[in-house]
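Model it.
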Amino acid sequence: MDNKKWFKEAQFGMMMHFGLYSLLGGEWNGECMSYIGEWAQSYFRIPNKEYHKLAKVFNPIYFNADEWIKLAKDAGMKYFVITTKHHDGFALFKSNVSKFNVVDATPFGRDIIAEIAQACRKYDMKLGLYYSQSIDWSHPDGNGGTEEQPVNMFNMPWGNEWDFPDNSKKDYTRCFEQKIRPQVKEILTNYGDIALIWFDTPLGIPEWCSKELYDMVKKYQPNCLINSRIGNGKCDYTSAGDNVIPDDNKGDMLYESPITLNDTWGFKPTDQHWKSAQRVVEIKDHLNERGVNLLLNVGPDGLGRIPARSVEILKEVGKILKERR
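Modeled.
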């Protein structure tokens, strides 16, 4: 099937934010964060020497790729997007570029992305891989935003300014060449067919970096779609802003809205603001009628369990959609 045709017809996918931040659940030293859980290191300004200790206890013994993908399938979803590396720099795959990965740095020792890829093939689910190509708090030259926008709306720095405070010494080109480019090549070449690459937060990334990533994706995965968050307009489809629900019809455009099931992306047990199954279906209908896919996010806990409330809602969504057929 034509790569753009499948995306247009898919209409519904699952996103999964999973990593070391899943262990923290939005809490650090007796304090609960008010922001999204996967930004815990920046919110609390946790030094790498402390944050990286989480890898030593990251052991999601209840992670089951088959269960995750089957849940998405039963909910009526057609593709699955998972964080291979988020802003903290920790990789959920075996990387020869950085030992800060799930195989080399944790007691779990298994390549989570490999198991997800295998389960996607088993259940005929399209595989999408998220990769944070600009922000990397574990690297001294990770992108720190721009002079005009050094912090986000919650006054949290885009880059790691608590370990590496001298922005004048930072050169994102070094991060790109030492880690970003070779790791993207790893995920493009080690996991079979990839339906889409989901880049994120390109604030301040040079145009040549976006172009080089785009060209590399097309070299190794010619049929792989690339989202707009690669930056500088080098994309195949548009990712709306987080939790943005467009009202206008997108026509023949390839368009997607990433929406959270509660308010956070990474696991955060204090966030119980769940969307009901009926509300999820309403959002899906609203978007699909306008030519927009719904990419619905859930965040597993540090043991690899999808929260029970998430499971209940997704099963109910699947039931509602099945009854329509």
